[in-house]
Amino acid sequence: MPAERVRPFMFVAGSDRQKAVVYPLAGPAAGTGEVLVDRAPVRPADSIGDTARGDWNRPVPPTRFLHHYEGWEFDGVSVPEVLRASDSAFEYAMVDIEPLERWSHGRTTLIGDAAHAMYPVGSNGATQSVVDARALAHALALHADPAEAPAAYERERGPAMTALQRANRQLGPEAVISPAHQRAPGGFTDIDEVIPAHERAAISAGYAAAGASDPATVNLGSPYDVPVHALH
Q1: Chain segment 16-33, per-residue pLDDT in tens
Q2: What DSSP string runs through 101-140?
Q3: Residue 192 has pLDDT above 90, yes or no
Q4: Strands (E) located in the chain
Q5: Which UniProt keywords apply (predicted)?
């Protein structure tokens, strides 16, 4: 889409019942000025049988969702325009699993969604999989016993990921849209009159801390760098 029709940030609008997420995947292409865009319209299923749990590859026409989003335009971003421009779409259920009692069995362990499947909010599914891999490599470098390393990794990562799974059930950083909708269902012109800046910041900061993406934690560097002596 033309870059000026998307804006260079992640756009989230709606409520805890129905929302739309739109964001660019790259900078403007040379010559055309267009950007590749991803979008995720989210709403309750029309019936229980509409979606299959865990089926992520069910193709549907992009216009299937269009009638639910007519008139959704905010600050120049038109959700119907984005949906009409889509080449393809997939429909899947927003599902997770209860936190597992354990990830590791002897020399075998789980990482990523296999260990802590969570609602896809906050961009944490892939991110935490990468962190898991670093944490597991770190544990393997520090423990000579290959059965102790997965257990150490699980002790380190398990509590934080359980907390993050539960935070995602509450919409993660997107939770800010719920009080905005509840307090101003007819819309607003000044967000500060609806949700003060300190309240918005607290929601964002709380989730960032849960996912270890807050500035203070990030600036400390990775806790999972492999010690040099372990590489020899």
Answers
A1: 789 999 999 999 999 998
A2: S-S-BTTB---THHHH---S-TT-HHHHHHHHHHHHHHHH
A3: yes
A4: 11-14, 19-24, 37-42, 58-60, 73-74, 77-78, 89-91
A5: Monooxygenase, Oxidoreductase
pTM value is 0.78
Tracing tokens 């790259």 back to the chain, one arrives at: 26
Counting Cβ atoms within 10 Å, is residue 105 exposed (0-12), middle (13-18) or buried (19+)?
exposed
* Co-location of 80 and 121 in the same domain: no
Of 27, 81, 19, 21, which Cα lies nearest the Cα of 44? 19
Domain match, 127 and 196 both: yes
Radius of gyration of the chain (CA): 21
∠ Cα 159 161 165 (to 5°): 120
Q: Residues 128, 158: contact at Cβ < 8 Å?
A: no
